[in-house]
Amino acid sequence: MHRKDSMPGRFALLAPLVLFALGAQAQSEISGQAAATGAPVPKNISVSQGQLDAAGRDAANFLHSNMSYAQTRYYPAAQINTKNVGKLKPAFVFQTEVLESMETAPIVVDGIMYLTTSYNHVYAIDARTGKEFWHYKHKQGPVMTYCCGPNNRGVAVMGGQLFMGTLDAKLVSLDAKTGKVLWSTQIADPELGYSETMAPVAVNGKVLIGTNGGEYGIRGFVKAYDAASGKELWSFATIPDKGHEGVWAANDATGRNMLRDIAAEKKQLADKGGDFYKTLGGGVWMAPAIDRETGTVFFVVGNPSPDLYGAERPGDNLYTDSIVAIDLNTGAYKWHYQYVAHDVWDLDAVSPVILTEAKGKDGKMRKVAIHGGKTGHVYVHDRATGELIRFSQAMVPQENMWVLPTKDGARMLPGANGGVEWSPMAFNPKTRLVYAANLHQPMTYHVEQAAYPGGKLWLGGAFKVIPSEKQWGRLAAVNVDTGKMVWKVDTEQPLIGGVLATAGGLVFNGEGNGLFRAFDAKTGKKLWEYQCGAGVNAPAVSYSVRGKQYVAVAAGGNTQLDFKRGNSVIVFALP
Amino acid sequence: MTVLARIALLAAALASAGAAAQAPPSAEVCAGCHGKDGNATLPGIPVLAGQTSRYLYLQLRDFQEGRRSNEQMSPMVKAMTRDDMRALADWYSKQKPAPQPFTPDAEKVRLGQLKAAETLCTMCHLGGFMGQNEIPRVAGQRYDYVVKQLGDFKARRRTNDAGNMTSVSNTLSDADIENLAHYLASL
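Predict the joint structure of the above. Result:
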């Protein structure tokens, strides 16, 4: 963040997820083509629903961007563990041709790795040797709109098909063996600010995907597509056309007053009506979690549009800044719980939901859904009802919450990137700890009246970093049964990318300065590190081939925080 | 996607690539004010030659949808399709900006350059003021057009950028605007 520090920062704009520097630099789009180049994968790829369901116990493959439908990112292999991790060495480095922000979580099937880059390239490589098989470059349409870099967070796999969302708001299915395009479906209109960076989720013949665009006045959704044909099966709007005003909540989920002028909001709604729901935002940035037993999809919804100017969008702005549960088969609403009503700080909900068990208030174990917020709290909900069982102590400093944004800027902590950004957390059921990558970026929040600009960036003000205040990151371990932060490791830079935990008692996390590190899951003691040469701002994955365990992570830097760019996935193993 | 659909797409792509080489028919009407190749010579009319395609397209769309309005432009775009707009935007973006007849004042250029650096214009407009994404190229833009637009942003007469330029131009005096316009015209 040195670069941002040196800027007076009129337009140190942040997005829902993020920091968006309107003019950070010219990004020449890497041009694409419709077909993959290279050779087919030298084996048949076929991932059954049974394998996808059992992915959390699969010590050979890594089948979902967050490892399993429960998204715990707790990898069951223990060959690499606290005793030997100090000897971990690179096995190979795979260089892509795209030197730009990497947020990909590689998928590994039967020794074949599928990884993605910015601008929607996909590579199929040998996960043991790094040998490239095929390379697909998506041909983008005339308009791509993205707030926070031309990122992609990975593919989903099912049967012999891969699925990827694209910056020009398409869902594409590729033949996993050849990289050939099987079908391509336009999800929404990119001219109106819709785009895709998230990894989809494939389940039972369906492909689920949300949308970016909370900085552009979209109306968010989660959609399900038929995996065979690409036909839309259902769509859940994250902004209901009626009732988005909610309950006029005065306090946030932790009981703090949000200083809303509810009388003025009610008058605005009565006078002008609620038609603004069509541009109220509510992006869904990360892969949903799925409870297969109850057929429920869980995700969090991002900020309302425009981010900072709330006067013309009265009400709670449901279901922005909320965790939401819907039916897997129909997309029908089940429940929601809102963290921040009528958000004017972009302190929204982005990091993917984790499904596990945790103690209820009575000490009995309950099935829960967990989310790490930009607010800096981990929230633990009952999975069936959404009831907030507990929220953790704040993982990062909170100051002056919830001061309202002003024309000249009001200082509040956390800054608009969090807390926990899109970075997935990991949960170790043995330590009972959830591991969260946090940012600390002191900022001022500025508001400016702003009419809907028709699919262009729409913040209604600005987020500015405070150059004189130091920024840093924090890997925090929080006990889900108590809400207490058990250990923390502070880092030179704000953390963005996500965490992997393993049965070897390890926690892997990357940093913007290029360090990729392993910690003892119980204590947070640093056990190993490797300098990757570019920002490690993607979640690590693990897998095994021929009995040998590997850990893989992308080192491509980050657009949003302007960490040094790279183009590689680095794969580690014991000698 | 079927093979047929792919062939159709390919054909469409080739057709549009070909069309970009010669002026779309509707450019004849535009030429009345903006000049034959987008190098405007009339007062208050912007140079379109070399402008980014993305920006031109978005402005045409905004004129049509009423987010930006202008007595001359608004009626012109009424009947345009999105494809018409894209064809025009692509074509003008490929035309070469010609040297301007306007002679910038050297002292005003110097002051304008200083003000531009202080205001961080290139954070959005990019080095050399070449534009990117939805942000226009303003290098070599006409002096009188720049003065008018900065004034319009300041007075909220132009708001189709969601207010970003309003907060910028609020920090500029009339003299600053004059100097900046000289500087940009000199590039």
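The interface with chain A takes residues 1, 6, 54, 57-58, 61-62, 65, 67, 86, 119-120, 122-127, 130, 132-135, 159-164, 166-168 of chain B (CB under 8 Å).
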